[in-house]
Structure formats: C-alpha cells, structure tokens
Design a protein that fits this description.
- Helices cover 2% and strands 52% of the residues.
- With 187 residues, it is an all-beta fold.
- A hairpin with a 2-residue loop joins strand 2 and strand 3.
- It is flat, with a radius of gyration of 21 Å.
- Belongs to the elongation factor P family.
- GO terms for molecular function: translation elongation factor activity.
C-alpha cells in the first residue's frame, strides 16, 4: 500500500485488478476544499492512458514489478526468446507483450523485461539504439518538398524517416520509444 504522497513516475499501482503505471502526477491544493492528486495512468497490458484523480492521503494498492536485465536471442514463430544474464534461463515472450518494441529489436541486444508474479508485462529497450540502414533511395539535392526527409528501411525491417543525406549502409542512432532519427553514428 502506498499513500498519494508516495507517488512517483513509474510506480505501478493495482487498481480494480489491473496494473497501471504512473506517467505523471501533480499534487493540487486548491484555495478552497481538500487537496488532491491528479494523475495520468497507463495500463501496463493494454497501453491505454487515462486521467484519474485521488484525494490526498488515500492509500492505493501497489504492485511489485521486477525488472530483469535480459538479452534478446531470437524470434521463434509468434514468440521472442530472451535469456536472463544471471541464471541463463531462456524466457519465451509473446509478440503481443513485446509490442512495437520489436521494430528495433536486434539479436544479442540487452533489454529490460518487467514481470509481475513471473508473468512478463512488457519489454523495455534502451532509449537509443544503433541500427544500419538496409535500403533508402538516394537523396536528390534541392528536393525539399517533403521537408527534407525520406523513408529508410533499417536492418530490423522498421521504416523511419531520415534526412536526405543518409545513404544505404549508414549506421544511425534511433529513439526506440518513438522511432525518430537522432543522428549518424561515427564508426
């Protein structure tokens, strides 16, 4: 159990049998009336985001979420296979649990797997990943009608928009949360 004064970003709450993580929160003390805490919660399993208000001082059930460092090994049908670096146990995680993170998942990549009661909840990649451009059309100088970007296919199969000067074979730094191009990697 945690009080509203214990709220922090990333805390996982158990509300009505479902797991919710706090994205952001704000303590509000109006001039008239009792204080309250306004939160933005994200459902751990479905990804749904909702706004919820708690009265100040209310106790809320918290969930124990273990985050383990694991290594992604390979994709097997509809499952992704990860290995725990400490115990060398292999864990099979479904495509639905991995979600969009699979777009930037490379073999032997270090990731964090969050579990609750030994059930995998989600996979967290590093914030930035370095990937090689598998294919992109050559950029033409003066072609600025699209804002100076063009589509590029990465080695994982993900497609992102990159500046016109990027060529096939370049190594890029990509934000794994939203798929934005961050820069070239000097090798």
């Amino acid at each position: 159990m945690a009080s509203t004064s214990d709220f922090k970003n990333g805390l996982v709450l158990q509300i009505e049998g479902q797991l919710w993580t706090i994205i952001e929160f704000q303590h509000v003390k109006p001039g008239k009336g009792p204080a309250f805490v306004r939160t933005k919660l994200k459902n751990v399993l479905s990804g749904k985001v909702v706004d919820k208000t708690f009265n100040a001082g209310v106790k809320v059930e918290t969930a124990t979420v273990d985050r383990r460092d694991m290594t992604y090994l390979y994709h097997d049908g509809s499952d992704y296979i990860f290995m725990d670096g400490d115990t060398y146990d292999q864990v099979s995680i479904s495509e639905s649990t991995v979600g969009d993170q699979s777009r930037f998942l490379l073999e032997n990549m270090a990731v964090q797997v969050a579990t609750h009661e030994d059930v995998p909840l989600f996979v967290e990649l590093p914030v930035t990943v370095e990937l090689v451009v598998k294919h992109t059309d050559p950029g033409l100088q003066g072609d600025r009608s699209t804002g100076g970007t063009k589509p590029a296919t990465l080695e994982t199969g993900a497609e992102i928009n990159v500046p016109l000067f990027i060529n096939t074979g370049d190594k890029l730094k990509v934000d794994s949360r939203d798929g934005n191009y961050l820069g070239r990697v000097n090798s």
